[in-house]
Q: What sequence folds into this?
């Protein structure tokens, strides 16, 4: 780090945010490094726009799960439930919920790796129950369980940040999901 260019300053800042431990420094080259903050991977507070967009996207994409389940298109329904709804929307909301619980000072790690570590037992069990196999009825139950959990976490995150939860969107989509579930199959 003898260069004093922009890259060196940026790299030094990143190293401090990411964290480090000096094992050996015979030439005292690390003395100018900033004290590590370990903040590079902390969950960031969402803006109100990000919060509302995530909620809206989650609810609208649940309609695809319902249609896939009703049509007996298991592969598509599982993709929308497990990949899109779970890993794009629910995962982010769980991260924000953990951020709220721990004053935005923890890292839940990649892809929910440490969710169990940071969630209370009841919430973990609710999350765990959204994982199901190939049975269509089990997937309907998982969809509504995921929706309930998403609502619970979203409301708490929103309340903590002073954002209003868009309950009208949820009400209308839930009504639609229930209608699709009750439809007779031709």
A:
């Amino acid at each position: 780090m003898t260069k004093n260019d922009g890259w060196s300053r940026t790299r030094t800042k990143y190293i401090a945010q990411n964290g480090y431990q000096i094992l050996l420094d015979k030439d005292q080259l690390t003395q100018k490094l900033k004290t590590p903050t370990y903040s590079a991977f902390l969950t960031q507070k969402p803006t109100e726009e990000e919060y509302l967009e995530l909620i809206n996207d989650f609810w609208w994409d649940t309609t695809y799960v319902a249609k896939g389940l009703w049509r007996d298109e298991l592969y598509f329904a599982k993709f929308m439930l497990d990949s899109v709804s779970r890993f794009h929307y629910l995962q982010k909301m769980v991260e924000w919920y953990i951020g709220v619980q721990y004053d935005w000072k923890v890292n839940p790690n990649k892809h929910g790796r440490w969710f169990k570590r940071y969630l209370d037992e009841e919430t973990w069990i609710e999350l765990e129950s959204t994982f199901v196999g190939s049975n269509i009825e089990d997937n309907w139950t998982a969809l509504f369980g995921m929706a309930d959990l998403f609502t619970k976490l979203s409301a708490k995150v929103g309340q903590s940040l002073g954002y209003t939860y868009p309950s009208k969107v949820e009400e209308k989509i839930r009504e639609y999901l229930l209608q699709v579930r009750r439809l007779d199959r031709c």
About this structure: The mean pLDDT is 89.
